[in-house]
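G., before I forget:
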Amino acid sequence: MRHTDREYEAELGRVRDNLLRMSGRLEQMIADAVRAVLDGDLALARRTIEEDHKVNRMELDTDDLCLLLLAKRQPLGSDLRFITTAMKMVTDLERIGDLCVNISERALALGGERPAHFAASLSHMADVDQAQLREATEALVARDPVRAQQVFDRDDAVDRTYSEVVREVQRSIQGDMAYLERGVHVLAVAKFLERIGDHITNLAELVIFLVHGKDVRHIGKRDD
Amino acid sequence: MNPAPAPAASPPAPVRSRLSFPTDPAPVRATDAAPVVFDLQALEVYYGSFRAVRDVTMQIRKNEITAFIGPSGCGKTTVLRCLNRMHDVIPGARVRGTAMYHGIDLYGPDVSATEVRRHVGMVFQKPNPFPKSIYDNIAFGPRVNGVKDKKRLDEIVEKSLRGAALWDEVKDRLQHSALGISGGQQQRLCIARTIAVEPEVVLMDEPCSALDPIATTRIEDLMRELKSRFTIVIVTHNMQQAARVSDRTAFFTVELDSANDQRTGILVEYDRTSKMFANPSDERTENYMTGRFG
């Protein structure tokens, strides 16, 4: 059901659109950052770093809009949950942008050298991250906790690939100490992709809160 | 209240009171364990043949602030007025179902409305001080109840005005007309007048709707303070006010009865305020409080 106040409806729509635009841009940034590493494409790495400024700007705009909505509308019920959730989501989305910058910086540090041996696993992690981000965003739009839960459940796939990369890098370094420096960069890229997966999981948890009003974060970790 | 049995020779009291319970119980914290003050079961109110509200089943607990919210015509004021039998003065108004007050049927044959109203006071939407002095407004109820002693009346007036957070503002002009103070002060005077007779419950029917935001804040602050001594039930159109002051909130709405084309109020949801405003269970509550109504 739509809001009786059409201006309010439009403002909530703007918050949602901002989240979607940020998410779309980040999906591209994940792909570009990993492509820059795998192809040794330094220009693409620099462009991806530049792109992050736009994500930061969108984070600030969305926060401003949410603050204004809290002050002006004093939202209740699902609107209250949506706005407070959006404020948390932009933080996770912005952090994903930062991690894409970190990956791009590793591409620059590798200086055009292509870690061909890890192409399959790193691009698999990037693909899963992109698909998961898309799924979390669609769960948000559809307010679908089942899809959000699936995102949550699939995070293990990224974690498993990350562990494989760690073991493989260790083996490569043990075999050839000259690989140490490159190995550290590859390891970092894999770690950043794994962290991106964690932020996407946070988004999915927030969608579940948005729909059910139940906080599923830190379940089993609370003192009480 | 609760007088000792009269000697056999005395004439019987004109109205026998069945409302007896401890008059000065210790304040109780607002918890689910708080004693039930009002227990409403399948309450319905009719004005003639028109059923204004139906199916109201809820318990109102001691030393809590309970808010009634909902659109116009949903029956929230009608239910509030049941709690101190204000409908008795409306010809044709009648109540079905049960409204128990500490286990006593408020509408039982030998319970008098006057007696009920001594336990359950009411503050109205528009401040309505009597055209008398500030002092006489407060002393009115106690005098009706037989308090004659000047010193005792002085004490009640001061205690009530302090209780309503008005004493410091009016202590030097107690003999001035109550109509000469501001609207917000007049409303606090009405609250002082209500608590002067030491009721257990204070009903408030949109007590701030005629007041500016500062005066509203004062009343809300006062309500929180009064909660330790009284049980408060408030009808408000201001959902933020309900969210700010109340412990529990009841949401009422209007349903069209297709059988007779009449609109009847119903209780949709009643829960802790923190739950109601952040995550209501019923979609109708959600739609109303987020402005997706009608």
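Residues 150-163 of chain B form the longest helix (14 residues). The radius of gyration of chain B is 20 Å.

More on Monday.
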